[in-house]
Amino acid sequence: MLKFVLASLMSLVFSLPIMAVEYEDHDGMLMNHGDGHLMDMGGGMVMGQNTETLPGGCEKISETKEITVHAGHKFAEKFPGRMFAFDTQEFNFKPCTKLTVHFYNDDKVRHQWMMHGLPKYLYPQGMFHLEVSGPGKISGTLILPPGDKTYLVHCDIAQHMEKGMKAELKVGKGDGDLPSIPGLTAPVVPDDYEGTLADVAAAKVASDATAASVATAVKAPPVAPQQPDDSFVSGVTVIGLAIGLLIAPFLAKKFKGMTAAEIVAYVFDLLRTLIDLGINLVSKLIKLLVANKNKILPER
Fold first, then answer.
1. Higher pLDDT, 229 or 20
2. What span, in angstroms and rounded, lies between the C-alpha atoms of 293 and 270?
3. Is residue 93 a contact partner of residue 144, using CB atoms and an 8 Å limit?
């Protein structure tokens, strides 16, 4: 009799339908608030929507693409120590691609798919943003800029990115990989559980002392003030004019069809990129000097 009851219960359990995630579709409920900002009262939001305006330097849309991205706790199971993740950690598209993203939230909390670093003259705050509260689906479209660049994609909800919800999107060949992308690139500061807390503290003190001694050793000597060059046409002026003449045709093509405000914004973005490149080069040089100093300093 007991076996019959157990068999009946098991038969009943296995005959029940598997409960699938029910996604609330926000696409038909979004209200346009202007400047590519769409949202509804149910927790769906699109920011930076752009379906028609070409970024400066794009003569036409190179291709039209659609992708589906899922976000949730279950996608982090394959990444030890992570709590949230996208189902895809890397995307790649041609420059000037018209891209539509269908974003699904598989959790009962709020998640985002946010892309940073876009030109601010076209995308407010320099970003494209999809957001869903709870299980749901939302779609948005943007036109990718020209050039080879790697963009950060992440969830900006507190601690969600730190817990693994981030990816990279490469336009063209990209300009390198971003650090700490789960399953793709190494973390900037990996967790290290070898030794004790006292060992870690001692290592930090030694590292700080070494860095201080290296900074003192490589301190540049005072430079005598130079007399200003009174000549009107200096060597720097000649070099600047030559460079300007060489890049003038390229800039003319790049700025074709752009307004004055767009040109100014593009120039500032270019300057920011050059400054970031300079900072990265200086940082690498300092790290190289520190590494060489550690090899030269005798053990005490």
1. 20
2. 35
3. yes
pLDDT of residue 46: 93
**pLDDT for 263:** 74
Which of the listed residues 121, 148, 171 is the one where a domain comes to its end? 171
Model confidence, pTM:
0.59
Residue at 96 is within a domain: yes
* Rounded Cα distance, 242 and 73, in Å: 56
pLDDT at 29 (0 to 100)? 63
Mean pLDDT of 94-101: 97
Q: Edge-to-edge, what's the strand order for the sheet holding 44-47?
A: 31-32, 38-39, 44-47, 127-133, 110-116, 149-154, 166-171, 90-93
Q: Please report the pLDDT score of residue 38 as a whole number.
A: 77
The DSSP result for 176-203, as a single string, is SPPTT-TTTS--SS----SS-HHHHHHH
Torsions phi, psi of 278, nearest 5?
A: -65, -40
pLDDT tens digits for 11-24? 554 444 445 667 77
Confidence label for 167 from pLDDT (cuts 50, 70 and 90): very high
Alpha-carbon span 149 to 151, nearest angstrom? 6
Amino acid identity, position 91: F
Q: What is the Cα–Cα distance from 39 to 29, expressed in whole angstroms?
A: 8
- The enclosing H or E element of 4 equals helix 2-15
3-class secondary structure per residue, 233-289: CCHHHHHHHHHHHHHHHHHHHHCCCCCHHHHHHHHHHHHHHHHHHHHHHHHHHHHHH
State the residue range of the domain holding 154. Answer: 21-171
Q: Identify whether 92 is part of a domain.
A: yes
Total tally of structural domains belonging to the chain: 2
163 and 38, same structural domain? Answer: yes
Answer yes or no: is 129 within a domain. yes
Locate tokens 């950060």: which residue? 152
